[in-house]
UniProtKB/TrEMBL annotation:
<dbReference type="InterPro" id="IPR001296">
    <property type="entry name" value="Glyco_trans_1"/>
</dbReference>
<dbReference type="Pfam" id="PF00534">
    <property type="entry name" value="Glycos_transf_1"/>
</dbReference>
<dbReference type="GO" id="GO:0016757">
    <property type="term" value="F:glycosyltransferase activity"/>
</dbReference>
<feature type="domain" description="Glycosyl transferase family 1">
    <location>
        <begin position="178"/>
        <end position="340"/>
    </location>
</feature>
<protein>
    <submittedName>
        <fullName>Glycosyltransferase</fullName>
    </submittedName>
</protein>
Length: 362
């Protein structure tokens, strides 16, 4: 039985966290010994981990990278070692690479969970360290292209595995009969998610008299972006749109909100492979989102959704206005096609089999 360490920084709210839990469960169900290791206290998904009976350990470390590195090295030694480490997100992948560089005996899958927008020094260091990874696995084709273009020496180890969606869980229900047209977003309140421009576009809609629509945003403020979050909440009041948009805390019961909205919107400036768009499509929802990264691989323009330019408030406004004014019958057609795409593209089976192929290849 191969032993696998699944390493991620936290079990807080996020797409990477959900994907990691799903992967750990599948590997366990298929006969692998799996330990899910984190090093930051955050238990948003703890109930899900307990439900699936996944072995999970949070290592108690000081708030510095060397403490985390030492704690993970110590854990590996005390548990007798692992055949593979699967690391999600930048911190864990860097830790995995450094441990390999200093003699770690495990094989390493370093998973890229976002798209690189510019090559800062920390990114150059990360991609340099990736030479110690056995596989570099982006979850977005845009990121694979970026790596192959900028770091051709990594080309042999790069392979994309896009996210899965549980289409048996995220299912459509009868068309909602809301008093107002509901547009929903699921995302952290963060600069990447483009909250400020989104609020400006909503203000434009109100000025046009399109007030029979309500926006619901589900997600907590990104850690270390509290100032930005406060600015967005204040801006909502300054623009006079507090009657049009509500910010809600992150919730594990997001399914009912997907099912009860009319349209899903994700206004991000950049993304990886957005789980929330896939989940909304699986629930049979039309999509309006930014034309960035892998979104055009997922959403079919004028068939199940439309795009806008996230840095252009007028473009966001026009996209929202267009979908708000669409005939109900056309929205239903788009929603049905969203579900069809989800069933064909976001297969759990394909996602898991690709990981098993890597694990069994060496």
């Amino acid at each position: 039985m191969k032993r696998i360490l699944c390493l991620i920084d936290t079990l807080g709210m996020g797409g990477a966290e959900r994907q990691m839990i799903g992967l750990a469960l599948f590997l366990k169900q298929n006969g692998y010994h799996v330990d899910l290791i984190t090093y930051c206290e955050h238990d948003f998904y703890s109930e899900l981990v307990q439900k699936y009976a996944i072995g999970s350990v949070t290592l108690h470390t000081k708030n510095n990278k060397w403490s985390k590195l030492y704690a993970i090295r110590k854990h590996i030694k005390e548990t007798g070692g692992y055949d593979w480490m699967i690391a999600y997100k930048d911190g864990p992948t860097i830790i995995g690479c450094i441990l390999k560089m200093f003699g770690g005996k495990f094989r390493l899958i370093a998973s890229e969970r976002n798209t690189t927008q510019c090559l800062a020094l920390k990114d150059k260091v990360k991609f340099f360290l990736y030479r110690w990874a056995d596989y570099v696995v982006p979850n977005a084709y845009a990121q694979e292209k970026f790596i192959r273009t900028n770091f051709p020496k990594l080309s042999q180890s790069v392979t994309t595995i896009t996210n899965f969606t549980d289409t048996d869980y995220f299912i459509p229900i009868a068309q909602p009969t809301n008093q107002k047209f509901i547009i929903m977003t699921v995302a952290r309140v963060a600069r990447q998610k483009n909250v400020s421009n989104y609020l400006e576009a909503i203000k434009r809609l109100k000025e046009d008299g399109l007030t029979n629509v309500h926006f619901d945003w589900y997600g907590d403020v990104q850690t270390k972006e509290e100032t930005y979050g406060d600015m967005c909440f204040k801006k909502r009041l300054e623009l006079g749109i507090e009657d049009m948009i509500d910010f809600h805390p992150a919730t594990t019961e997001i399914l009912k909100h997907y099912q009860n909205c009319d349209v899903f919107c994700l206004p991000s400036i950049y993304e990886g492979f957005p789980n929330v768009v896939c989940e909304a499509m699986s629930c049979g929802k039309p999509i309006v989102c930014s034309r960035v990264c892998d979104n055009p691989h997922i959403v079919q323009e004028n068939q199940n959704g439309i795009f806008f330019t996230p840095t252009d408030v007028n473009s966001i406004y026009e996209g929202l206005k267009y979908i708000i004014n669409m005939p109900k019958e056309d929205l239903q057609i788009w929603g049905k096609y969203s579900r069809e795409i989800a069933e064909s593209l976001f297969s759990k089976k394909a996602f898991f089999q690709k990981y098993i192929k890597l694990i069994e290849s060496l």
